[in-house]
Amino acid sequence: MAPTPDAYWLALRRARGVGPRIARLLLERFQSPERIFGASENELVQTGIPRPTAHNIVTFADFDPLEKELCELPRLGARLVRWSDPDYPINLRHIADPPPYFFIRGALKPADSHCIAVVGARAASEMGRRMAQRLGLELAAKGFTVVSGLARGIDSEAHQGALDGRGHTVAVMGCGIDVTYPSENRKLASAIIDGGGAIISELPVGTPPIAENFPTRNRLISGLCLGVVIVEAAEKSGSLITARMALEQDRQVFAVPGSPLTGRTRGSNRLLKEGARLVDCVEDVLEELAPQLGQVSAHHRPEPPAEADMEEKDATDSAIPAPNELNIVLNQLKGSEKLHVDSIIEGSGLNVQTVLKLLLELELTGAITQHPGKLFSLI
Predict the structure, then answer these.
(1) pLDDT over 80 (residue 330)
(2) What was the pLDDT predicted at 111?
(3) What is the C-alpha separation between 131 and 82, in angstroms, rounded?
(4) What CATH number was assigned to the domain covering residues 1-69?
(5) What CATH number matches the domain at 309-378, 2.60.120.380, 3.40.50.1260, 3.50.50.60, 1.10.10.10?
(6) Domain made up of 105-300: CATH architecture
């Protein structure tokens, strides 16, 4: 029995010697994996690939495991997105080494061409975590999709911030689509999908999270995006690899400055010395990207809010919160040692995004402090 069309797609990366760049070269020449595997060795060599690689393609016959892998996808709630599919991300398509396909749980939308990555240290400081969450929240509130790697620390906070802002967020995995790493982020991964976002991986189903997978994964994080924000990065960190790849892909690199007295920000501070744009608020990112945003065609821009959401959007677009709204939130915290954000929202009668922005405003002015578990208290 002949292999299914999707099995040919998987085989394109499983044939020895075929990496993303060769796969792209072959797809541009032959248009489909079936034609690639149906070509002669000489025809393949004429495209510029090494003869041993061409021979591996012509002689590839291990399709049965690939068919089994494809059969697993529905059970995992996943599917295959191919280079030829209309929902293949436009930003990713234009990098030098795009994956010919990737697995996805959740969904990508046309508005997801407006992606900004927020990445950084796993062992992040409390201030770094707050900054990542704030950036994720405010980017989402502005209609941007927040991309990160679902790792501990900065990545997790950026994803959570985007979810708190009722926005889209995309996690790019360095393991199989069926593996959640770290395991404590299972709930966050589910929330990303339930919130209309996506989890993606180019690696085979069942691939464990081994160290060698993450640098190549990082090119997808930067490739999906218009820019990459680094929040806390040590001198030798994966985030700096992401920054380097972003520069190679002609993406804008941003960095949040940190104290020179701590090693966890030495890498991000070095990026600033080398020309990265300094970020202390989301407006720094938007100002730098404004020319690019103006060049994106209308059908790739974030979808306008539904009519039912306009009232909520108006409430969150104010640059300065109304004093009575600030007082409403402050009154919720009076008489309580610590109060969960959900209780503040419910008691205030205000919409979610308004309360989250007010809490940020109060935290930045030193009126309140945030504790682990989304708990807040007066200072």
Answers:
(1) yes
(2) 67
(3) 35
(4) 1.10.150.20
(5) 1.10.10.10
(6) 3-Layer(aba) Sandwich (3.40)
